[in-house]
Amino acid sequence: MRSIRARLILILMGSTGLVWLLAVGWIYLSTQAEVERVLDARLMEAARMVNSLLSDHRIEVGLEEGTASHVVGEFEHSHRPYERQLSCQIWTLEGSLVGRSENAPTTQLSEVVDGFSETDVEGERWRVFTVENERLGVRVMVGDSLKIRESLVSDVITGLVVPALLILPFLAGVILVSVRRGLSPLSDMADTLSKRAANDLRPLQAGNLPKEIAPAVSALNGLFKRVEDARDRERSFTAFAAHELKTPLAGVKTQAQIALASDDPALHANALRQITAGVDRTSRLVKQLLDLTALEANDAAPNLQAVRAQALLKQSVAELPLPSGGARLVVEGGDGEDALILAEPHFLSLALRNLIENALNHSPENSMVVCRVEEAGRDVRLVVEDEGPGIPEAEISTVVEKFVRGRNRSATGSGLGLAIAQAAMARIGGTLGLENRSGGGLRAVLTVRAAEAGA
Predict the structure, then answer these.
(1) Which spans are transmembrane here (predicted)?
(2) Residues 6+ apart with CB under 8 A from 445
(3) Which CATH class is domain 305-449?
(4) Is 95 left (phi over 0), alpha (psi -120 to 50) or beta?
């Protein structure tokens, strides 16, 4: 069953019916026990009363055999329905009937000489209380039919069940209305969402909602926020890509037009070199845009694992294309050569590659870019140093932003390398630090937790 409303109605009506049936059963059993107790007390009282009247000679019976008389008194003058059903017999100890009430059977009600008993008399079940009077030599038996008792209990249950059955339709209506009103906030929310435009991602109002629905609305608002952020990233990606790709593509087109318009082989060769450089720059820009978008769109928790920092550094260097400039790339064995770090290899390798590419692009000919691993207490640092112009102190805090290029920019840079490194380190809980070296150049440091400290 897929309808919450129908499910709630069935559960409420089923549970209400079950409680009602259990209540009827409990009332039936308790009423039956109470009726048995009360009626047994009445039997005992009636038998003792007749015995007392006999002892006081207020009732006279013929003790000669065959002279049974009617017992008069309470049994014949009572106007209570149940008491008219009581039957009284007086038997001698020798087994002769000497007195009985008007409606009492002539067959002996019980063989028990004293106390309660149940017996079949003329095909009917009786409950009997017997009192033995040894002084008068008689036994007084007062009994009633168990059918009468069952009829009394049935009348009580009928008095309870019939009104309850009449109330059931009203109770079902109350449940239907209550469930419908209780689920009305969900219907209102669905109606509100159905009327919204596709680009309307405003959060839903959660002021007066029931506490059971508030979490769903909060989750929807969170989803709207994530969708809005994703759309903002897509718009930013489109705008940045259109802006940044326009210049290199225009340059490539210009060089192609120059090559087509000239027959000079030297001019052709220069134009092809410019086209190649433009394609390389465009390719790197597209790759960086895709990397940055993937980082920002990834909401999953990073899969941190223990890896060897030196091995990861060497693998990242090996995946880089050969430097096209005059700088040399060197991996040194520092004091952290055997250090274990807690990181997600993909993100850390992405940050390393962008830092190394950035250092190579800004390094002059015959210079050196050095990479190494250092231990720093509970942290491990992956260091990339170059001999380039460095970054002016006033720009160090802003160069990690997207498409920000400082005064000492390179011809092939796009302003995304440091932003990607910063975003990747934020994903794994690490940090990116930038500082100018005293001898010239830039020192970039990626700081991550050592595996032992993370554990």
Answers:
(1) 7-29, 156-179
(2) 381, 382, 383, 384, 432, 433, 434, 435
(3) alpha beta
(4) left
Find where tokens 């720059």 sit: 281
Instruction: Report how far Cα 195 is from the mean position of its chain's Cα atoms.
Output: 28
* Measured distance CA(388)–CA(442) in Å, rounded: 7
The pair phi, psi for residue 269, each rounded to 5°, is -65, -45
10 Å CB burial of residue 73 (0-12, 13-18, 19+) is middle
Nearest partner of 102 among 67, 133, 77, judged by Cα: 77
- What is residue 364's DSSP assignment? P
pTM of the complete model: 0.48
Give pLDDT tens digits for 70-129: 554 444 444 444 445 788 888 888 888 888 887 788 888 888 888 999 888 888 888 999
Tokens of 401: 């932003």
Tell me the CATH class for 213-297: mainly alpha
Question: For residue 448, how many other CB atoms are within 10 A of its CB?
Answer: 26
The tokens describing 256, both together, are 């192609």
